[in-house]
């Protein structure tokens, strides 16, 4: 089992997803001798899980049954323990496409939060890409790193516990895409630029609808000023036409023109 | 850094590359071929000059169709004139504010004035420009630029760009699949490297290409196709390296019955080939009797000193024979190649262990879905796209009846574009009902034969009779 590769049979120390019913899923760490309580009864890992095929029906002690599913980022998103407000699959899908993510992409992300988007990115960029994710909250950063280890994806990700607005992403000129979901994205725009490869793409995303109608605007103007700071060329004002998509949040897509002439519209 | 050289190379346009031309919101996919005329937005252009430049560059279209790298300095907007009005109460729209006529503008264009300069001329000759508010001036300039700028940007094709292009230009070819719906499909089906995905699509290859891009050349894609052969025009536009195509297989959906019954005949000789062979021999026989009246066999005739005419005739016949033989040989090789590919695809399907299923076609999805689901392992996602809702409702109901799938969701998404400018941020338009619908779910182990499962429903709560008894 890993979040980036399928396997057939449940094994010890896997993370499996128990499907209890529509809209009811829960993650389970499979261990010899362990038990999991559900509303249909007890699931004994050694007899009911280990050695069974993913996708099988498992009968619980009280006579009820559940299904055991192979973990995917989508199932993880609806079952993970929330430490922060997370991104859901609908937005994650759009973000993945708009950032042109594919195997081999190098991505910078901040903040990590509860890791919902992180897992989806890892799945898409495996096996040759890398994710640099920054979280300024120490416990959340540690928890995320722990989960990546348990999910067998830690070779694809580097978690840094720092403030992206002050210290950046920890890499320079390496990323194909940058994703910002932080309270003040305009403060990190400069670092985002530094982290991008010469021809990379940046995406600033802000949560919530009403409070953030201001954010894309402020970020877009900041992008222009910070860009001027970094390069000699002039910006193209009319080219700054960010496109915003999705129901639940606003996002500002931009791509730095390789010749340094300023932020041009996504696509 | 030493890598910079290689990286740079990767970002430079090469001859033969498939690229996407862009102006504003208009995209067009073309291949860079030397001295080839390309129409883009009612203009003829030659793409020779872009070879060697970096992707993402913007070029100006000179008269004659050549492209020139745009000097970034010239794209700077003219300095905002300080003169602006406060509102439009005194601005009368009588159509007479612009002093330049259409002919004047044509003359300017012919003089070779760049778009930038034409816009400047228009501003200077506009009576009401200085009465407009700053924002209105901005809007005016943007509008004129859009009309008169003569530029094109060259982009590397990606799933996102091609999806937007198809949706804007030819939505009919892709069953009106909107690009954000495509994004949902790729994520819900958990498309990733090193998996085996089954695809059934009639979207000109866009869906197939997107899946291949997300798999990065690792893993396998088996395309099921209706009719004679798979339609893959869109896949070429992605410009994948050759090794990606090795992961792509195709299988005709009409042979599914045979495959499942185990009677798929992948080694039978094509009856056509047999016929052609017999035709060949018949022709050969015809030639030989023809040669007989002339006396000896063609070889012997070569050695003899016969008249020049006869020699030429014989040579022609021999060449014809050789050509026919070569053709027949070619056909045979192609036929064998086809059979080999069919066998390879069948082998991929036989294990019934595919990791994902994506359906997006103009055909009714129900029968296709129910047949192809059997080829998936348990606990794997599948996604069905349909332009309309009703066929998916049918699929949903049938799946619920037959079992084998959980977490069924029927969804559609809305996409709203916003204009983002300081103090002028607002939604532009709402696209709804235009993007199609998705049915997604996860397979589970099939039910064992009926009668053996006591726990179909969760057990009812135990009645606490004992406590009240006695």
UniProtKB/TrEMBL annotation, chain A:
SUPFAM superfamilies: S-adenosyl-L-methionine-dependent methyltransferases. Pfam families: GCD14. Residues 64-200 form the tRNA (adenine(58)-N(1))-methyltransferase catalytic subunit TRM61 C-terminal domain. GO terms for cellular component: nucleus; tRNA (m1A) methyltransferase complex. The keyword Magnesium does not apply. It catalyses: an adenosine in mRNA + S-adenosyl-L-methionine = an N(1)-methyladenosine in mRNA + S-adenosyl-L-homocysteine + H(+). It is found in: Nucleus. Its EC number is 2.1.1.220. GO terms for biological process: tRNA methylation. InterPro entries: SAM-dependent_MTases_sf, TRM61_C, tRNA_MeTrfase_Gcd14. One of its GO terms (molecular function) is tRNA (adenine(58)-N1)-methyltransferase activity. Keywords: Methyltransferase, Nucleus, S-adenosyl-L-methionine, Transferase, tRNA processing. It is an enzyme of class 2 (transferase). This is tRNA (adenine(58)-N(1))-methyltransferase. The lineage of its organism: Eukaryota, Metazoa, Chordata, Craniata, Vertebrata.
From TrEMBL, chain B:
Belongs to the TRM6/GCD10 family. This is tRNA (adenine(58)-N(1))-methyltransferase non-catalytic subunit TRM6. It is found in: Nucleus. Residues 461-470 have a biased composition (Basic residues). GO terms for cellular component: nucleus; tRNA (m1A) methyltransferase complex. Substrate-binding subunit of tRNA (adenine-N1-)-methyltransferase, which catalyzes the formation of N1-methyladenine at position 58 (m1A58) in initiator methionyl-tRNA. InterPro entries: TRM6 (IPR017423). Signal peptide: none annotated. Residues 267-278, 299-339 have a biased composition (Basic and acidic residues). One of its GO terms (biological process) is tRNA methylation. It comes from Oryzias sinensis. Heterotetramer. The lineage of its organism: Eukaryota, Metazoa, Chordata, Craniata, Vertebrata. Keywords: Nucleus, tRNA processing. Residues 70-93, 267-339, 441-470 are annotated as: Disordered. Pfam families: Gcd10p.
